[in-house]
Design goal:
GO cellular component, one term: axon
GO biological process, one term: chemosensory behavior
Oligomer: single chain
Structural class: mainly alpha
Order of helices and strands: HHEEHHHHHHHHHHHHHHH
Function: Gustatory receptor which mediates acceptance or avoidance behavior, depending on its substrates.
Shape: elongated
Number of domains: 2
Family: Belongs to the insect chemoreceptor superfamily. Gustatory receptor (GR) family.
Keywords: Cell membrane, Membrane, Receptor, Transducer, Transmembrane, Transmembrane helix
Length: 581
């Protein structure tokens, strides 16, 4: 195949693309002939990388060191670690699979469209970035990234008390690197689109006084349409990767903020805790910078696309309404409005600056709620552990038949019961509001999930309904993390009373031991653990069924109301159409 002249901004950083070929973030591409090379070897190499990642994943699930470390974490912390790790692994696997097996023709189409646009615009030797300065900045970013993760890896090995080899199966450092390189490439790709929108705007500003402006405007219409198709290809190629990157930003932010909270409430702040806090702060900055590099270039590209339309409107005012130029501008404006494409995430939502505010708002809102849930969960688990210890001591005393030692146990049982009462007063209203939020959000999520089945425009609601279902399962999990530990603690409290009843069977009626045990049983019943939402209702497993029944009832009601509303809207629209006819 004859060599082709590539777009300057792509050919200029071809070494960066070849570097990404090592990790299969980009397909193996021959820049000189504008073709892919060795596709069979590329697929074989992709299978090798996938097998390595699957082997690491299996080792992560079955490693004793990982299990030992996870046992020391709270349930919510385990969930954050699991989601963060699985999200990064999924990002690596999705990138490799899409690059090697699914999307190579789309990559080729993107390069062809860039070539076509540059030929139409006659872009020759545009102002280029200085090569040395570009690679110097990239090298500095790489050095900073590796410095952060070397420091983090050293701190993690010290905090876990394990060697470097033992910690390798526990930390997805390579996946962090995959995410970083993917974000860098996405920013460069969006920059290519932005520069072409900018070239079109500059060209229409230069040629509006030339006699051949009508022909130039027709060429620009074609270029604008091709750029819109390029943006659609971008959404198809990178949509799911961007979802995973944004999700990881939120999870990692919660993870880092969670340790900041743990650091603040720690009774003794050792030097290792300060190092871990520094590592989490650096990781949070790294993740937020990735998010910034992902969103800001997209916003700049969208602004350039809108600036082109603004220039067309301004030029339209300079010509008469009946001139050929005005007609051509009217045509190009209508075409550009149709082909103005937004960067979106696989059809789920558009990417712009509002995503930053949404992520920040959702993160801090979720973090405050998460802190309350973690605090409630940790306190309930500590109470459960003390009840379990109390039951073990009671079993030992029952074997030795030393009734005199039971007084100290009942004293501890009374203190635990009073602690539960204090817990109810401290967190009663918090639990009410959290449960209320869960109920409202569950109704909202399930109702919206059923909208595609009653709407005439179902395909637009399907992705949003899928997201709402994911939110529903997440809220259900949070709901269970509150109810199940409380139910388990109450069960251990009742177990202590049942142990006292079993000890009564070992003594005769009327004996001093029997009388003492009866008094202790009656005394302990007064301080049995009962978790309530500030006295309004008792928190146990029956709350789960009550919530499910109420949520299902409200979902059915709202579903029927929405269905009748849609039918009424359709009937009214038919009536309006018949009247107009």
């Amino acid at each position: 195949m004859t060599p082709q002249k590539l777009p300057n901004d792509i050919a200029y950083i071809r070494h960066f693309y070849r570097y990404l070929n090592i990790f299969l973030i980009t397909p193996w591409y021959d820049f000189n002939s504008n073709t892919f090379y060795k596709p069979s070897l590329r697929k074989l190499y992709a299978c090798f990388l996938i097998s390595l990642k699957v082997a690491w994943l299996l080792n992560f699930f079955f490693s004793e060191s990982v299990h030992t470390t996870m046992k020391s974490l709270l349930l919510s912390q385990k969930l954050l670690v699991f989601f963060s790790t699985m999200n990064l692994v999924a990002l690596s696997l999705v990138t490799i699979v899409k690059t090697s097996f699914l999307d190579p023709p789309k990559w080729k189409a993107v390069i062809d469209k860039f070539l076509y646009i540059d030929a139409k615009l006659q872009v020759i030797d545009r102002q280029e970035i200085h090569l040395k300065w570009y690679y110097f900045r990239y090298f500095v970013k790489q050095v900073v990234f590796f410095a952060i993760f070397v420091y983090a890896f050293v701190v993690w090995t010290k905090s876990l008390g394990r060697s470097v080899i033992e910690c390798l199966p526990m930390i997805a450092v390579s996946d962090y690197f995959y995410e970083y390189l993917s974000v860098m490439y996405l920013a460069e790709f969006i920059g290519c689109v932005r520069r072409r929108y900018q070239s079109m705007r500059e060209k229409i500003e230069r040629c509006h006084r030339k006699p051949g402006i009508v022909l130039e405007l027709e060429n620009l219409i074609d270029c604008y349409r091709t750029l819109g198709e390029t943006v659609d290809l971008y959404n198809e190629i990178f949509g799911y990767q961007i979802i995973l990157i944004i999700f990881h930003c939120g999870v990692e932010s919660l993870h880092c903020l969670n340790f900041a909270y743990v650091f603040m409430v720690a009774p003794e702040k050792s030097s290792l805790l300060y190092h871990i806090l520094a590592v989490d702060s650096l990781l949070l900055l790294q993740v937020l910078s990735n998010f910034w590099l992902l969103v800001i270039p997209v916003t700049a590209a969208n602004q350039e696309a809108k600036k082109f339309l603004d220039v067309c409107y301004k030029l339209q005012e300079k010509y008469g309404m009946t001139s050929k130029e005005a007609e051509a501008l009217t045509k190009i404006i209508s075409y550009c409005k149709h082909f103005c494409r937004e960067f979106n995430v696989a059809g789920f939502f558009n990417i712009d600056k509002t995503v930053i505010l949404c992520i920040l708002g959702a993160t801090f809102e979720g973090y405050i709620e998460y802190l309350i849930i973690v605090l409630v969960q940790s306190l309930v688990q500590s109470l459960e552990i003390r009840y379990i210890d109390l039951n073990k001591r009671a079993v030992k005393i029952s074997r030795n038949k030393k009734i005199s030692q039971l007084r100290s146990l009942t004293h501890d049982f009374r203190i635990l019961g009073q602690t539960v009462d204090i817990f109810n007063k401290l967190f009663g209203y918090h639990i009410i509001l959290i449960l209320w939020h869960f109920g409202v959000e569950m109704v909202s999520c399930l109702t919206f999930a059923f909208v595609p089945y009653i709407s005439t425009d179902a395909h637009n609601y399907f992705n949003c309904g899928l997201v709402k279902l994911c939110i529903f399962f997440w809220l259900s999990y949070n709901f269970l993390t509150i109810v199940l530990p409380i139910s388990s603690a109450c069960k251990e409290s009742k177990e202590f009373i049942s142990l006292l009843y079993q000890m009564q069977d070992e003594f005769e009626e009327g004996s001093e031991e029997m009388g003492a045990l009866t008094r202790l049983v009656n005394y302990s019943k007064c301080f049995m653990a009962e978790f309530t939402a500030y006295g309004y209702f008792t928190i146990n497993k029956t709350v789960v069924f009550s919530f499910l029944a109420n949520v299902a009832t409200y979902v059915v009601i709202t579903f029927q109301v929405d269905q009748s509303h849609y039918q009424q809207v359709i009937t009214n629209s038919h009536n309006v159409c018949s009247v107009s006819v």
